């Protein structure tokens, strides 16, 4: 289950889940595609620079991916999070990774329910923090807000893809960031990500 550019991983799987409508929405950009990965599994196992946490406003832990990250990182993560004084919806804050294989955790608070602009802002804030932090080049996102916070995966994913594509299109961003990994946890969400990748990061 290694991390590869998405089209090398994705296309094999998409044959099993034929897409309904995957007409490309953008021109092909191989340099961009090389930086995007689709990975299925537990985000806390990724040995990369930073993983994103779908946290809540307290930043003190919760259910879902947040609970997994705090469990795996250990109590020093909690201790640091206490000093961060919470986080508002749409915003993000940086912490260490402690016992995680990832160096950093970027905590963001997704919208409760389906609010496009707020979801988009979460991804932008996380990406901007990655940009501002010297040794972050590889980052992974879980499917923010699509669990306990109730954002339908089919509606959230196009927002995510558009936001990430537009961000990565900026030359200063793509110069620094080497890889953005979409970490999909639920098997049923994989096909949704593949369909959207074919539209937002099309290949020849
Ligand atoms: P939110 O409150 O933002 O909806 P959740 O943690 O409930 O956050 O869900 C967000 C997404 O994270 C869901 O797709 C869920 O399946 C996924 N998820 C849960 N545990 C993990 C994990 N260990 N690694 C990656 N993704 C996870």
From TrEMBL:
Instruction: State a GO cellular component annotated for this protein.
Output: nucleoplasm
Q: Where is the Macro domain?
A: 23-201
- Gene Ontology annotations of biological process type: DNA damage response; peptidyl-glutamate ADP-deribosylation; purine nucleoside metabolic process
Residues annotated as coiled-coil are none
Gene Ontology terms, MF aspect = ADP-ribosylglutamate hydrolase activity
Q: What is this protein called?
A: Macro domain-containing protein
- Name the source organism: Dreissena polymorpha (Zebra mussel)
User: Which part of the complete protein is shown?
Assistant: 52 to 255 of 434
